[in-house]
Amino acid sequence: MLSDPILTIVLTLMAYLFGSISAAIIVCKVMGLPDPRTQGSNNPGATNVLRIGGKKAAAVTLFGDMLKGFLPVLIAVLLNSDELTLALVAMAAFLGHLYPIFFGFKGGKGVATAIGVILGLSWPVALAMILTWLLVAYGLKISSMSALVAAALAPFYFWWLTGSDVFIIMSVLLSTLLIWRHRSNIRRLLDGTET
Question: Residue 2 forms beta bridges with which residues?
Answer without folding.
Answer: 81
